Amino acid sequence: MASQAATAESGGGASGGVSRREFLYYVWGASIALIALQGAGLLLWFLIPRFREGEFGGTFTIGVGDVPEINTPPINFAEGRFWLVNLDTTQPNDLMYQAPDEPNPIQGVAAIYKVCTHLGCIYSWTPANSRFECPCHGSKYRLDGRRIESPAPRTLDRFKIQAIADDETTVLAEANLDNDFYSPMTLPSGTAFVRVDTGSRKNGPVQELLCDFQGNCP
Ligand code: FES
């Protein structure tokens, strides 16, 4: 009897259900599974991007009073890494003009990414020359982001914009895609805010250099 009791106590035999050894195996397995799950959860939490309003990668809501007047210099939104422009080639102006290969007027608001399409430098607006100029290798762009001079390979990229009503929720209109590139958007009446989604960027198209039309490319 004494030797039977010693065998059961040592965990070697089954005592009607789960032995102590099996129980310990189960606990050990469950612990490993729990640690693996926690690791996977942490990895997912780390990998999934979380962008908030007002943070690059998220949306920026701008009062319509902060949108530039038509055909005036662009407004710099540094936190969002974009310029806001308001274009209308049907109105006489010094900053925006229509090229021979542009059959339709260019009208509306656009949000232009602040990074040069050549090698990624930050370009800026040069008031003296009424155009964007890149300090790194000399690319120049018109107010709407189209290339004037290379080496930039394409027009400046744009972000998606929406016209929002004063309840800050209702979307009155949003920028159309034309050949997978956001067109400028005319703000409908009742627009109180413009929302720029910096998580939704489209590459600018490859268009002829504007300097080609004047025959004055460097
Ligand atoms: S990075 Fe702008 S011209 Fe090269």
Secondary structure: elements and pairs:
Layout: H1 2-9, H2 20-47, E1 59-63, E2 75-77, E3 82-88, E4 107-113, E5 124-126, E6 131-133, E7 140-141, E8 147-149, E9 158-164, E10 171-174, E11 193-202, H3 210-214
Antiparallel strand pairs: 1-11, 2-3, 3-4, 4-9, 5-6, 6-7, 7-8, 9-10, 9-11
The structure holds FE2/S2 (inorganic) cluster.
Summarize this entry quickly.
Helix content is 19%, strand content 25%. It is built from three helices and eleven strands.
Fold and architecture overview:
It is elongated, with a radius of gyration of 30 Å. It contains 3 helices and 11 strands; from the N terminus they run H-H-E-E-E-E-E-E-E-E-E-E-E-H. 25% of the residues are buried. The chain has helices at residues 2-9, 20-47, 210-214, and strands spanning 59-63, 75-77, 82-88, 107-113, 124-126, 131-133, 140-141, 147-149, 158-164, 171-174, 193-202. The protein has 218 residues and is α+β, with helices and mostly antiparallel strands. It has 2 domains: 2-47; 60-214, Rieske [2Fe-2S] iron-sulphur domain (Rieske Iron-sulfur Protein). The model is unreliable at 1-14 (pLDDT under 50). The strands form 2 sheets. Strands 1, 2, 3, 4, 9, 10 and 11 form a 7-stranded antiparallel beta sheet that branches. The protein binds FE2/S2 (inorganic) cluster (FES). Residues 116, 118-121, 134, 136-139, 151-152 line the site of FE2/S2 (inorganic) cluster.
